[in-house]
Amino acid sequence: MKVALTGLPGAGKSMVGRLLAQELDVPFLDLDDEVSREAGSEVAGLIDRLGLDAFRTLEHRILTRVSGEHDGLLALGGGSLDDPRNAQLLREWRVIWLRPSLTTLVRRLSGDDSRPLLRGNLAARLDDINLRRRPIFSRVAEAAFDAEAEAEAVARQVGRYLQEVEWVGPGVLWGRGSRHHLARFAPGRAGVVIAGPIARHWGGEIGRVLPDVPLRSFDDHEDKKTLDSVRALYAWAAEQAFDRTTTVFAVGGGVTLDVAGFLAATYLRGLPLIDVPTTLLAAVDAGIGGKVGVDLAEGKNLVGAFHMPRLTVVDPEFWASLTPAVLADAMAEIVKAALLEGDAALEALEEMAWPATPEDLEPVARRALSVKMTIVAADPKEEAERTYLNLGHTIGHALEQATGYQMSHGHAVAVGLCAILRYGAPQGRADGLVRRVEQLLLRFGLPIDTDVPPDQLMQPMGLDKKRSDGGKRLVLLQRPGHPYLAAATDQDLRRLAEEAGRP
Ligand SMILES: NC(=O)c1ccc[n+]([C@@H]2O[C@H](COP(=O)([O-])OP(=O)(O)OC[C@H]3O[C@@H](n4cnc5c(N)ncnc54)[C@H](O)[C@@H]3O)[C@@H](O)[C@H]2O)c1
Ligand SMILES: [Zn+2]
Predict the structure, then answer these.
(1) Of the residues 216, 397, 411, 472, which is catalytic?
(2) Residue 205 — very low, low, confident or very high, per pLDDT cuts 50/70/90?
(3) What CATH number labels 324-500?
(4) Could you tell me the pTM of the whole model?
(5) Is 393 a catalytic residue?
(6) Catalytic option among 382, 385, 466, 495
(7) Is 60 annotated in the active site?
(8) Where are the domains of the chain?
(9) How far away, in angstroms, is 329 Cα from ligand 2 center?
């Protein structure tokens, strides 16, 4: 466990850190102590003697070592995050921000003259430091705690939070009930865009968790994924006087995350975004990777941006209110992720009970999410590996278009996966993998072929936007876990379209 505490001087980083480390039974380090030990002098004296710049250089050197070696609790110095390189060092850490009010800080610090940066008018100095550091803390810290109470109580609160909300990787949190912590993720100004059906099921609760935050319900039919919907959200943001620091919470399935994400990507040239996916599909797919956008009459997802959410908060309890059809649809992408990951992931799916409870789904969903996170981290702008995520999507997209979007994305991808596996199977040899995947998809109630004739798939395939240099590329699978790209001629596409048909 790597947890770092940050906050202004007097926030209680060292005291809370020590208590929390005891509670969690992990080692504790105080960065200031490490710096003094190495320099052989108290931090206050060091800043006086070396000057602030030299002190920060020394602090950075020590944090470089500590952030790699230390596994446990770490109390940062008050200004450690002023150096942007330090925030980078802490990318794999859970950074918790302790933020008592300035009044509390003044009370705690008055009479303490050991802090060189606070000499003079204490309240004015704190105010100044707070104004400068608040944006940094908001960006770097995962969650904020008001930390007004005694250190023991704060340590207990943070401890409970760390146990309830798991860290999956940079910017991705997971936990049943994690929605109850939403207020900690954006302690400043915020607005919530929430899908209509979610608002009906969960809106009251979200309103209680974020009591002072304006909430806007959004009609999330796929045909509302348009610039008109975004325009209505712009008007709302203007009415609410959003500024560059206002966080947008996007609460819903993929449609909501795409549209609210596009609002966040473009309003005032970009606002911080927190994704709260409420469908299984959005948890493993749309909520990861920062692609946001809308459909045009000319085609799906044609206008958009890359805008990484600051956080994605997955709460599997949301899945309890999904219809079986929406749940099954997500399984197509989960099978795709398993094919990209490898054999063991496929086996885990084969062993999962179906119909599955949210508890059954959690481990396979986390696995699928990790596959996407790893691929996106390696190639955020889809210049290389990220194209692998389109496995099965050439036929998938063509089927959606050919049926005028009457076929759901999950159904289309299921057929697309089977088609590409049959297409890639060695000629004339029965391929065990094809049969395995077909059986798996059938078990989830998904189709494995289509009666849409190949002719009707050819035209949309020619128009698919995932082309490069005018040529068409297909994502193929050598074996589970080993995708590769191959150029395809029109004749190849024809054969692929035929593989999608009923035998
Ligand atoms: N940006 C990306 O990387 C990305 C990736 C995959 C999919 N997408 C997009 O996501 C969309 C599909 O996403 P989706 O499957 O999540 O669909 P969706 O957003 O359309 O949600 C499906 C249905 O479930 C309802 N719903 C959502 N959560 C619910 C809950 N907890 N309880 C009850 N009902 C709930 C919704 O109101 C909707 O009717 C498509 O538009 C697709 O293009 C984007
Ligand atoms: Zn997809």
Answers:
(1) 397
(2) very high
(3) 1.20.1090.10
(4) 0.94
(5) yes
(6) 382
(7) no
(8) 3-164, 178-321, 324-500
(9) 10
